[in-house]
TrEMBL record:
Residues 195-505 form the Exostosin GT47 domain. It is an enzyme of class 2 (transferase). GO terms for biological process: anterior/posterior axon guidance; axon extension; chondroitin sulfate proteoglycan biosynthetic process; embryonic pectoral fin morphogenesis; heparan sulfate proteoglycan biosynthetic process; negative regulation of inflammatory response to wounding; negative regulation of keratinocyte differentiation; positive regulation of fibroblast growth factor receptor signaling pathway. The chain crosses the membrane at residues 32-54. This is Exostosin-like 3. Residues 82-151 form a coiled coil. It comes from Lepisosteus oculatus. Pathway: Glycan metabolism; heparan sulfate biosynthesis. Receptor for REG3A, REG3B and REG3G, induces the activation of downstream signaling pathways such as PI3K-AKT or RAS-RAF-MEK-ERK signaling pathway. Required for the function of REG3A in regulating keratinocyte proliferation and differentiation. Required for the inhibition of skin inflammation mediated by REG3A through the activation of PI3K-AKT-STAT3 pathway. Required for the function of REG3A and REG3G in glucose tolerance in pancreas. Glycosyltransferase which regulates the biosynthesis of heparan sulfate (HS). Initiates HS synthesis by transferring the first N-acetyl-alpha-D-glucosamine (alpha-GlcNAc) residue (GlcNAcT-I activity) to the tetrasaccharide linker (GlcA-Gal-Gal-Xyl-)Ser core linker. May also transfer alpha-GlcNAc residues during HS elongation (GlcNAcT-II activity). Lacks glucuronyl transferase II (GlcAT-II) activity. Important for both skeletal development and hematopoiesis, through the formation of HS proteoglycans (HSPGs). Its EC number is 2.4.1.223. GO terms for molecular function: glucuronyl-galactosyl-proteoglycan 4-alpha-N-acetylglucosaminyltransferase activity; metal ion binding; protein-hormone receptor activity. It is found in: Endoplasmic reticulum membrane; Golgi apparatus.
Length: 924
């Protein structure tokens, strides 16, 4: 019934009966009430129960009353999730125990570190005390050093002034023009030793007569002044003021009075012209002496023509003519110096426009016996003409003399011999002449003339030995150059003995004088730059100011990474049976540079070879004199180097004690040229590890491609400097890099194999022959009769003339000569063929020293096995070297290489002796 009623209620409600809705509403209220009551019970009673249990757990003291405490038999752990919690609890407990042990350990470590900190603090305090004491000792030592320096070093101050501090317009001029000397007319206070010799050159457009100067001379003078390292634009600091006064053009004329007024109007003339140098450069033989009768005050004069009443010895300067004003001489057109004897024994072409007497129409000259009974000859020139014509008519020797010119010559001075014909015609005659006569003017009052200097210039240019007739003549730079080594200066009364004298000179002496003449011409006379530089250098030497240092090639270093220390190859340091004596066991240190002091110009100005410090005068001697290391020196523009010592001392202990004579603890620098052979280079550098006496290694990186970034360079105990070059050139091997701080250079290829004992022995040999190339691979030159040319030969032979610089010692001195002095044509040939740089260096050193190189050890080749192919393996290598030798001979004018059968080996070379007996021998 209930179900039926319920069904009826549902059916009734759904049918929309209006009496049934309250039943549905009542049932909905009952369900909502029950749901609310259930939620209330859950939200209220459950937290209260949980709170009760939690309170019971916190307040329970006995183990039996704890709800979640451990119970006997692990009754509570039998539940699965409770077991997991137990395992977690045990793991956490174990970790807590470990952390506690670690904490105790760290506390002990902290305690120990605190003790160490206290000890370090005490050590720091002690070190501070020691440092303070050291500072006090250093301060006292510096004070003592300053006191010693003050006691032993004089105070440097300016020289004593010759003139008042302020310009005095009323300062009187010298009483006599000829009374001027350096001590009385030059103000040394403007030129201290440390000034560097600043020179101010007047602009030719700043004075009136500058417009009348020869344009070629003016342009050449300006270019030379611009290239000089001594010229300054600041006149307030100048030591010397240079004024170009000539050469004047033909239409332009200037009276002595006007010239004197214009000179006094120069901005820095200072009333008397002290510290001024008036330069007159003559380009023609008929140059007029327009400074004659001009009051130059205290200014010095440099020109080619001087009268006795005008020239002030030790103050004025006789200079060479300026023939090649703007053009450079072609050295390939200069005739060779061999054969020694030429077609004509001597030659002379000239006409004396004004003569005291003429002997052309007179009879034969009188004998000396006849002249002794009467009056002496009125004019020696007449006797000269007669004697020379007699020699020509005798046909004993073929000579060329002409006393009448086809053209109408014009001389610059009375009684001076005028030049005949054009310059090209005169040179053709001189090229065929062994000697060239230079007859001084008949007037003894003429001490120097432009015509004589022009004859002297042309004779030296083509290799004709000058014979100056007239000992009263003053040749260019006569106070500095020893002309007797390049020319014959004969008094005119000995004209009758000239023929005998010229025939008596040996061929070797003739060749020596010809070489010296060529050297003087190239160094002092050939170009405008040479002439200007020699004028400045001569004046600088007179006032005893040292030259400026020679320019060194700045090394642009390539950064590189150093790898691990290289191992020492036992084969490289194996001496075999040789005992070369002790070596330095101290760590590397800077080798002493070659220096010069300020007393050099005062003590060595005029030595055995008294030559002027010209602009390119880097040669320590003439090409015919031997170079003595104690005499060797750099002089002139851009120089500042003097080799020290002669390398005295023997081998073994004695040599180690002396260590190069008066060069203590000398070292050498390895210069290694390379081109994109990194592996070969690294192996070669590693072989240098532990090499005694090695100061530094300079790697000349000749490739435009830089080394690999990941390339590790070996650490060999000394610095390795990698230099980047501007272009790929074999000439870079001999550039005087500023990184090279030693006199000795070991030039070595990147594929050369040398043992340490061989390098050490070669270095010791070089120290006793510092002027030569000392090396290992020997070569020689030979004359090809069939082709009439020179050949390069690398076959084994009992003699040699070259030592290749692929493994050789030489002085840095020759690096300057090779790069800055040697003719540019040779360096161009090396760049063209990419070959022959070693031959060029041998030519240069043999030309300078007149000595052959020195070969050490018996080995002839040092190439590493398995290295990549080098340039020398090319088929054209030897053909190019043949061409190089013949070209170099043309440039030098002769073959400078000398043969030798000399080789240097150790005293005990290949001598079988017990090891304990080697040091017992004494050689006397």
């Amino acid at each position: 019934e209930y179900m039926t009623g319920y069904t009826m209620l549902r059916n009734g409600g759904s049918s929309g009966n209006g009496g049934q809705p309250w039943v549905l509403r009542w049932s909905n209220r009952i369900r909502l009430t029950w749901l609310s009551f259930t939620l209330f019970i859950i939200l209220v009673f459950f937290p209260l129960i949980a709170h009760y249990y939690l309170t019971t757990i916190d307040e329970a003291e006995e183990a039996g009353k704890r709800i979640f405490g451990p119970r006997p038999g692990n009754e509570l752990c039998e539940v699965k999730h409770v077991q997991d919690l137990c395992r977690i609890r045990e793991s956490v407990s174990e970790e807590l125990l470990q952390l506690e042990a670690k904490r105790q350990e760290l506390n002990g470590e902290i305690a120990r570190l605190n003790l160490k900190i206290e000890a370090c603090k005490k050590s720091i305090e002690n070190a501070k005390q020691d440092l303070l004491q050291l500072k006090n000792v250093i301060s006292q030592t510096e004070h003592s050093y300053k006191e010693l320096m003050a006691q032993n070093q004089p105070k440097l101050s300016l020289p004593v002034r010759l003139l008042p501090d302020k310009d005095d317009t009323g300062l009187p001029l010298p009483k006599s023009i000829r009374s001027c000397r350096l001590h009385s007319c030059f103000d040394y206070s403007r030129c201290p030793l440390t000034s560097g010799f600043p020179v101010y050159v007047y602009d030719t457009s700043s004075y009136p007569w500058g417009e009348g100067l020869d344009p070629l001379v003016k342009q050449a003078f300006a270019a030379s002044a611009k290239s000089s390292i001594y010229v300054t634009d600041n006149p307030s600091i100048a030591c010397l003021y240079v004024v170009l006064v000539g050469e004047l053009q033909e239409p332009f004329s200037l009276s002595p009075v006007d010239l004197e007024k214009q000179l006094h109007a120069l901005p820095y003339w200072r009333t008397d012209g002290h510290n001024h140098l008036l330069v007159h450069l003559s380009q023609k033989s008929m140059t007029q002496n327009f400074l004659y009768n001009v009051s130059t005050g205290r200014a010095a004069v440099a020109q080619s023509t001087f009268l006795e009443s005008q020239f002030r010895a030790g103050f004025d300067l006789v200079v060479s003519p300026l023939v090649h004003a703007l053009s450079e001489p072609n050295f390939l057109e200069v005739p060779p110096q061999v054969p020694v004897k030429r077609k004509f024994l001597f030659s002379f072409q000239g006409e004396k426009v004004e003569s005291l007497r003429s002997s052309l129409q007179e009879g034969p000259p009188r004998s000396f016996e006849e002249e002794m009974e009467g009056d002496p000859p009125a004019d020696y020139d007449d006797r000269i003409i007669g004697t020379l014509k007699a020699v020509q008519d005798s046909h004993l020797d073929q000579v060329q003399v002409e006393f009448t010119c086809k053209n109408r010559p014009r001389a610059s001075l009375p009684t001076e011999w005028a030049l005949c014909g054009e310059r090209e015609e005169r040179l053709e005659v001189l090229k065929a002449s062994t000697f060239a006569l230079v007859i001084a003017p008949g007037d003894s009052q003429v001490v120097a003339s432009a015509g004589c200097n022009m004859r002297l210039f042309e004779a030296l240019e083509v290799g004709a030995i000058p014979v100056v007739l007239g000992d009263q003549s003053r040749l260019p730079y006569h106070e500095m150059i020893r002309w007797s080594e390049a020319a014959l200066i004969i008094p005119k009364p000995r004209i009758t003995e000239v023929h005998f004298l010229l025939r008596s000179i040996s061929d070797s002496d003739l060749l020596a004088m010809r070489r010296q003449g060529r050297f003087l011409w190239e160094t002092y006379f050939a170009t405008a730059e040479n002439v200007f530089g020699t004028i400045l250098a001569s004046f600088r030497t007179r006032i005893q100011i040292p030259a400026a240092p020679i320019r060194e090639e700045p090394a642009q270093e390539i950064p590189h990474k150093a790898g691990k220390a290289a191992g020492t190859d036992p084969n490289m340091a194996d001496n075999g049976d040789l005992d070369l004596g002790p070596v330095e066991t101290e760590p590397p240190y800077a080798s002493p540079r070659y220096l010069r002091n300020f007393t050099f110009t005062a003590a060595d100005t005029y030595r055995a070879w008294n030559r002027p410090p010209g602009p390119f005068y880097l040669f320590p001697h003439t090409p015919l004199d031997p170079l003595l290391p104690s005499e060797a020196k750099f002089l002139g523009s851009g120089t500042g180097f003097r080799p020290i010592g002669g390398g005295a001392g023997g081998s073994g202990k004695e040599f180690q004690a002396a260590l190069g004579g008066n060069v203590p603890r000398e070292q050498f620098t390895v210069v290694m040229l390379t081109y994109e052979r990194e592996e070969v280079l690294m192996n070669s550098l590693e072989r240098l590890n532990g090499l005694p006496y090695l100061n530094k290694v300079v790697v000349v990186w000749n490739s435009p491609k830089l080394p690999s970034d990941d390339l590790l360079w070996p650490d060999i105990g000394v610095p390795i400097v990698v230099v980047q070059t501007e272009k790929n050139s074999l000439n870079n091997r001999f550039l005087p890099w500023d990184s090279i701080e030693t006199e000795a250079i070991l030039s070595i290829d990147d594929d050369a194999h040398l043992r340490h004992d061989e390098i050490m022995f070669g270095f010791r040999v070089w120290r006793e022959a510092r002027d030569r190339i000392v090396g290992f691979p020997g070569r020689y030159h030979a004359w090809d009769v069939n082709h009439q040319s020179w050949l390069y030969n690398s076959n084994y032979s009992c003699e040699l003339s070259m030592v290749l610089t692929g493994a050789a010692f030489f002085h840095k001195y020759y690096a300057y000569l090779y790069s800055y002095v040697m003719p540019q044509a040779i360096r161009d040939m090396v760049d063209e063929y990419i070959n022959c740089e070693d031959i060029a260096m041998n030519f240069l050193v043999s030309h300078i020293t007149r000595k052959p190189p020195i070969k050490v050890t018996s080995r002839w080749t040092f190439r590493c096995p398995g290295c990549p192919q080098a340039l020398s393996h090319d088929d054209s290598h030897f053909h190019e070297r043949h061409k190089c030798i013949n070209f170099f001979v043309k440039v030098y004018g002769y073959m400078p290489l000398l043969y030798t059968q000399f080789r240097v080996d150790s005293v005990l070379f290949k001598t079988r002796l017990p090891h304990d007996k080697t040091k017992c021998f004494k050689f006397i």
